Amino acid sequence: MSQSEELRQIKEALNAIRMQIDHHIEFQRAASAITQQPQPQWLPRSEDWDQRSFEKWLRSLIPIQTKLERIRLKFFASLSNSTTNLRASIGVRPDDFPTSTLVPTRQNAAPMIVSQNPLVLLPWGTQPLDFRLKPLFDAWPKHLAWYPAFRDPVLSARALQKQFSHIDCPEEDLYWVFARGEKDIFVQICRMEYDDEGCPGFISESCLQESRLPNIPEGSLVLWEPSPVRKKNTRRHSTDKPWIGLGCGTIIDINLQDTAVLPMHLIAFILWRLRHAEDTGYPSYREQRFALEYLLSFASRWGAIQHPFGSFSQNISIYFNIRWMDISKSPREYNDTDLGLQIKRESGDIPHINRKVPMDLHLLEVRHGICLVSTIQPLPFYSLLLLQDREPCAVSPLREYVAVELAERATRLFKMRGGNVGRLTAIGFFLAFLSVLLETIVKNWDVSLDRLDETLVTSLSELKRSRRQDLMFDNDQFSKSDQYFTALQVLRICSDWIKQVNQGLKTLHSQIDISKASLDDDSDDDTNAHTAQDKEDERKRLHEMCSVVMAENEARSRPLLDRIERKVEEVKSLRDGLFNATSVREASKGTSLAEMSGRQNQYILVFTIATVFYLPMSFVTSFYGMHIFDQSGDSSSSQAPFIATFVVLSLATYILAASGLWFIKDRAEHKSNRRDQTYPNEKGKKQPALFGLPSKERSDSVV
């Protein structure tokens, strides 16, 4: 390649980089303008409140046995038709099931059934159930909620339905009952209300704890959900703002705390909370499978299930998954449960070379899944569920306040960006909550990268003469090469995971745009109160919120990507230094071997000359010493033939040896001249230097 072509390619690359920088600057300016100039806030009116829809939403929260059974059958039928590689834990005693079908995945863990389609069931359970899966099928809870006034679960369920069937809003609290086996899982519910301006705000929270109520079964865990109606609220019956004091939304935080198996009771609770809003009386073909897909996407391998966005009539649903890499000095201990779906996460390790004791850093994928279910009306009712492997370490150290802090920060951020978005208010709050969660996860990335830096740190103390050799040369186990290779791959994976979030936000934005276009076609509440201009304003403001979330996350992730890039260059420099030092050492060994080989060749040449010199004498002496030359007379008669033979044979041997040596040398010089004529530009070039040390010139002469 000529020099002009190289300059042209460099110029094109610089122009492409400049265009990317200009595009990024324009994008940041647009996002900054959106943040600095929020649109005028839309204020709700009294006629925007739908009391009957609110009561219908509350009644749908109460789990009914027949509907729970229908969800269970759909759940197992969907798993049987799923092509995703899933694992189901069905027991804790291997003797209960055929050992040939069980594959233990961890020591002291529940046995797993592993196959492409692990749950082979008939849709709707019309055929006999596989006896291996019967414990999993039977583990589905028969009762999720409890009314404390009744000990019998059937009477309790009837009382709940009766209490929540009145036109007036109920003021009774709801108790969700969990089995004792879920004690390692932390569940929290935050109640949200609309303020005077129609913006969601945090009101109260409750956590999963041991039951102390007399009528609830002993040993159960209870999650108390406050009544959606604030008791003794003097502003409750306000005519101008009838939504004041009514709980229109909930945030559910489920922290699995590194549980390896998602228990069936928790699966039932999640599916009910995400699917209760679908029970609106519409035909079954319009029901969405997003709740199950959200659950399976969280439990299965990353990317096995795509992120859907579903909307139908007066309901909208959306979810988003995020993952980051935890790097710790000790392996993560999983909490085992016996019945449920195994949570599949990637894991690995990176060697940490210590001068005395080698240690490994353990890598683990940590995932957070956020899901939203909302109605579509001027003041929507919504449920936001956050399912995560563990709480982010960048928020409150007390887990009882993690969801509260996230909710309060999301509320402040939502108001700062304009507040109420009309029918799409729940989606706007979802984006604000997602932005806050992404901000905390960025801090988790910083902590993980700090721990990774500890394994590859190079300080002045490492550059001392006594310790410099450890950086320059590898050992017999190639520990340094292993460490550098693993570190480069880990950094590449970290960069890919961070970029996946940015790409996922762009996909989310495009899916929301498609959904907004379909909302106007499917919506049945097109009244005069909600004009086309209102819909256009909602569309525009939600688009601005999405743009701000993408711009902020890109701005937060850029320092992480730059830090990873710098670390990659640092590791590459250490690796190149190791390879160069090793090459110099090997080259030095090769030079020593070549010199030793040259000296050996000289010794062999001397030995050969001496051998050739004495060869004729030895041959003639041996030849004439045979018995065929014995004579009875004087020995002087044989001296003349002996001398003549010796002289002739010696001269012939010396001439042939000298001719052979001359022929070999002349042939080598001839080859050298031909090579110089073929490559005249390379004549006289010196060999490249390593570390600035010139290599020795080679000679083609034969010694």
TrEMBL record:
Residues 519-538, 671-703 are annotated as: Disordered. GO terms for cellular component: membrane. This is Uncharacterized protein. The keyword Transmembrane helix applies. It is a multi-pass membrane protein. The chain crosses the membrane at residues 421-442, 603-629, 641-664. The keyword Membrane applies. Coiled coil: none annotated. It is found in: Membrane. Keywords: Membrane, Transmembrane, Transmembrane helix. GO terms for molecular function: metal ion transmembrane transporter activity. Residues 671-685 have a biased composition (Basic and acidic residues).
